[in-house]
Amino acid sequence: MNLDPLDCIDQPSRNSVDEESDRLGQPGTPIQAIPVEVPAFNDINELTNQVPEFENQNQIQPKMLLRKRKGDPSEWRDNKNKKLKNSGQAYEGARNKKHHEKKNILSNCACKKGCALKFNTEDRSRQLRQKQMSETIESIELKPAYDKPLPIKKALYNDLLTRCKSQAIPYHYQPFYRNLSFCDIESGHDEDSD
Questions:
Q1: β-sheet bridge partners, residue 15
Q2: Is 149 helix (H, G, I), strand (E, B) or coil?
């Protein structure tokens, strides 16, 4: 009887190995229950003479991606100047460093009608703003950009007519599409639709 030296080593039976693989392959087996073998590494990588990164996983410090202090938009020169300008105070220009004086309302008049007693500074500024707005609105005159509708291509016009006939375009929009003018591509002149 020949004995192989490997037969003397305690090895699990074939049945227990099958049972173990069956238990690990079950869908309900938690991941923590599955044994994982981690290969052993040398302390120093022989090729690069450096300590591998994965050995210091417990000692890894987060990279400083953030700035040391957070930006405060209320302290920015542009925003400060904007607040000062809107409140009517003196401010210095951000780009050209030009000094702008604070806004002053003219002094109260000293007429016989007693305007100084009838109106205070807030009322005067409110009335001034209303007057400026009314003058601005009245002076705006809107002119039409086109004197007639722009012509469209004949193919597009025919496509719109087909959609009108097939009721794809709602009935109350159809007169608009039927009255559009189209342009003949070859000649380049406008033709009114019939």
A1: none
A2: coil
Structure-block tokens of residue 44: 């120093």
Helix (H) / strand (E) element for 14: namely helix 14-24
H or E element in which residue 182 lies: strand 182-183
What span, in angstroms and rounded, lies between the C-alpha atoms of 80 and 91? 8
For residue 52, give both structure tokens: 């591998």
- Position of tokens 């050995």? 55
Q: How far is CA 153 from CA 15, 148, 158, 162, 184, in A?
A: 83, 16, 9, 14, 7
Alpha-carbon span 53 to 55, nearest angstrom: 6
Per-residue confidence of the chain (194 residues) as pLDDT tens digits?
565 655 555 555 555 555 555 555 566 655 555 555 555 555 555 555 555 555 555 555 556 566 678 888 888 888 988 888 888 889 888 788 888 888 876 666 777 877 777 777 788 888 888 887 777 676 777 788 888 778 889 999 999 999 999 999 999 999 998 888 888 765 555 555 44
**SS3 (DSSP) at 67:** coil
Could you tell me where the beta strands, DSSP code E, fall in 3-104?
A: 91-92, 99-100
Domain residue limits, the chain: 110-139, 152-191
